[in-house]
Amino acid sequence: MMYFASPQFLWLLLLVPVFPAVYGLLRFLRSRRIRRFGDETLVKALMPSVSASKGWWRIVLFSLAFAFFSIGLSRPLLGAKLAERETKGAEIMICLDVSNSMLARDYSPDRLSRAKLAISRLVDKLDGDRIGLILFAGTSFVQLPITTDYISAKMFLNSIDTQSVPVQGTAIGEALRTAARSFSAQSEKSRAIIVITDGENHEDDAVEAAREVAGTGIRIFTIGVGSLSGQPIPKDGDLMKDSQGNIVVTRLDEDSLRKIAAEGNGAYIHAGNEEFGLNPIIERIRALEDERFSSVVFEDYDEQYMYFFAAALVLFILEMLIGERRSKKSLFE
Known about the structure:
Layout (H helix, E strand, L loop, with lengths): L1 E3 L13 H20 L2 H7 L5 H22 L2 E14 L1 E7 L13 H15 L4 E7 L3 E8 L2 H9 L13 H10 L9 E7 L8 H9 L4 E6 L6 E2 L1 E2 L2 E2 L9 E2 L3 H10 L4 E3 L7 H9 L4 E13 L1 H18 L11
Helix pairs in contact: 3-10, 4-5, 6-7, 7-8
């Protein structure tokens, strides 16, 4: 199985057919200019050293060399073998609120962006722990299944915005149940859910859902995002308003989040601008008994870029050696 470490360079392959096309166009325009001076056959007879075929050979070799060079830049890798790897740690499902209220700017630049940054920094510190991501607003879904692929976790994280969940609202209870169903079959002891939200639950009984989930041995931690005084919600360059034309203000509901954490045998933390709250929660999760996980992964990736660079170099050299004029002597003389 081939894998490209820098696949963005593969876009350069789109230029490969452009080179012969441009060369053919230039040859055509050159022929038109020659015909203005007289008979084209006579002009060619006056230039016996010019070789039309060599020009085409050169552009073909140059195009092939450029193709190999582009593939080399993308760093192709080959997986040498499949191996079973055992890791040790916890399974953590993060439930991230992506409702419109998370656009309030009592954090810089806004609540949602600050939460995404905190999760990204947390992922950088993980080692062996499995992480998954649930997005929720009026409904919830699994954005990232439980995994140790931290690179993919950060890629999924970058694509999140308030349009990720089409149904607006805040259904924390449904998010908790979705997260509880998303843990792997290997995990029994060290399982935790971290809910990041402003706590304004409008859709269900989140406290009852927390009680149900905690009954399966899963701990629930909550991080409150927002201010108690409240903030307006930006929308289309203005502020969001209700049906009566009043500006909508979103406030942190700490009381609900404390109750959810208490029922979930976890803890509640109010997110700050400096310490968002994920680090102390992770420290508490790591104090639990670690699980051992096994997974099948590709190991020993072999770099292949040097072979493509070598082929490109050979073709570039051949292209330069061909020249543009006919040889004065026959190859077999």
